[in-house]
Amino acid sequence: MVMTASTTVNPQPANDSPQQRTMPHNNEAEQILLGALLVNNNNLEKVSEFLKAQHFYLDIHARIFEALTKLIDRGQDASPVTLKQYFQDDTALADLGGGKYLDDLADNIISVVDVQEFGRQIHELHLRRALIILGEDIVNDAYKPDLDLSPTDQIGDAEQQLFELATQGDFKGGFVPLITSVTAAIKTAEQSYQHDGGITGVTTGLVDLDKKLGGLQNSDLLILAGRPSMGKSALATNIGYNAARRYSQTDGKEGAVVGIFQLEMSAEQLANRILADETCIPSDQIRRGEIKDTDFQKFVEASTLMSQTPMFIDDTPGLTVNSIRTRARRLKRTHNLGLIIIDYLQLLMGSSKASQQNRVQEVSEISRGLKILAKELEIPVVALAQLSRAVEQRENKRPQLADLRESGSIEQDADVVMFVYREQYYLERDEPARRPEEDDSKFNARYADWQQRCQEAHNVAECIVAKQRHGPIGTVRMQFTGEFTRFSDLDMHHQFDS
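Structure (tokenized):
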């Protein structure tokens, strides 16, 4: 195709900046695409999903595309005749020949044009220009001394921007035939059938919880929340360790490589909890050194087992979502990461300064970032969360979704929300006292009732599944052994196979 002489005029690009080398662009491809759209407005359907005005190199082409898009969206005809009135005073178009330039765009389309291919070329050239600009920004920021932006933070920001560019360049979205989705659903059902109990995701090592969730599903954000001392960190650690052990026991066929971001305690403290669970030696005795000579053999056996367990712990304090993403990607690349646990969400920091000035916005950014991370890496992300003190003010202290602290976006972004609740904790702190003018029989009856409730609640915990996007909600009862910080199935024949 040969364009008129007026097309050789080089107006200012949409993203004009001084460059020693010409930015990647293809003026002719932009002209051909615009001409094809002016000739047949229906062609816009083929490119509108991924191509925007800002993707054009020439500013005048960007404005022509934006104008014709608005007309077509309104149901009006977008042609050289209808567009001319919007560009009567446009000096950039006048330099190209005015309204005649629009006529030339349409008149020089002399054959069938693969509109989608030209659209992709324009979009890919935009991505290349964006990469060049991003590279320059990285270099310039690295030269500037900035106390608020460490090199690690800069790397995280760069990775985030690169990820956003990669997402923009993905043309795989859109409709898929029903048969494709049905085939995937049947494959999932087959996997569930083969696992004798419906486990299609990463196992938690707790049979009843696995039955309720079907395992921890890829791309899901799971929130595990509770008040302090309920055992949410212990439960998350048990789940992570069980999944990692199953991975090593089955040569990677089940379970997952686990990465734990521990923002509340040190890696050594977390290892101490796992050691207590493995050796059945209370964690406080291990910490104080109150152990027997015979216990060292247990330590040797446990350390051998733990050395074969693919669990990685990062106890760096004050991490941002970008830092989490950077480290998770690296672990995914080097060790095939399959499950992330974050303890806990409210200790993370937002990546942008603007969000850090508003705690609700910051938590919203964090929860969205974790959901995006789960989808990007296609693995489950379990994030622990604190609950508000409103729980303590109620007579029934079982948590509710409204108790999630600081942001409703946590509930919105999460695929699963679970609460850890131990009635024993509250009962032990609510021993009945004799009321004024209460006789012995009434007090004794009330005290006996309290003792009965304590006995029934002893070493019993509840995992309340309050939200599950793709499954049922309900309560799973578990056994909690505090001295070993261990959660297990309440029915002993369900114990995780060791």
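The chain has two domains: 5-168, 199-421+459-494. The beta strands are 221-226, 257-262, 311-314, 337-343, 381-386, 416-421, 460-468, 474-481, 486-489.
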